[in-house]
Amino acid sequence: MLGLPKEGISQVKEALGIYEQFDNKSGQTQSLQHLADLLYDDGQLDAAEEAASRLIDLPTEGEQFTLCDCYRLLGRICCSKGEAEKAINHFETALGIASSYNWDNHLFWIHHDLVVLFLDEDRFDDAQAAIERAKSHAINHPYRLGRAMVLQAQVWYRQRRFEEAKSEALRAADVHEKLGAARDLEFCRALLRDIEEEMQKPVTSGD
To answer: In 3D, which of 86, 21, 32, 75 has the Cα closest to residue 56?
Structure first.
């Protein structure tokens, strides 16, 4: 939380060693989850993937919530490594767990991750389908709806549908401003600047 991932990694490795000594599976699960998150934040993708995979292999009971988070993290790790299909498989596993328990928050963010992946792959139809599924888990939740609007604006921006993208980005900015979500608001403003810059470019015969 203080932005010191390497110090955190050292501490959690020490904790993990203690839990392994006492064969405390619950403690090992918690430690490996923290370790995988910290390694991912520190850009140590292979080590993060290894820690998450070790967590999955632990013979624990009643840890579906943790497993769902772990598969989502594995998907994000694979995205960062450019392993799209492997990432999709992990996201789909996470979706299966979350769907079994109707975890709307998890379902929204997993679909959110899938939209980002599909955008990186220029798979706009898949991205649009994932946005619609994400929206279904954002009903009556203003922040999630705002994030879904941002995703929609990004898809339309990438498709060069600039007027629609601008309108949706403005709607998202309004939502985040009302919520006091400063970081998200700044992202919306940056996206709007990009959209307006594209709209001001002269149209050529190649466009």
So the answer is: 32
Q: What is the mean pLDDT of residues 75-81?
A: 97
pTM of the model: 0.90
Tokens of 132: 């619609």
pLDDT in tens, 99-116: 999 999 999 999 999 999
| 114 and 81 Cβ atoms separated by less than 8 Å | no
DSSP state of 2: -
Residue 43's φ and ψ, nearest 5 degrees, are 80, 10
DSSP 62-114: S-HHHHHHHHHHHHHHHHHTT-HHHHHHHHHHHHHHHHHHT-HHHHHHHHHHH
Band of residue 141 on the pLDDT scale cut at 50, 70, 90: very high
> What's at 200, amino acid-wise?
Q
Q: How far is CA 195 from the centre of its chain?
A: 23
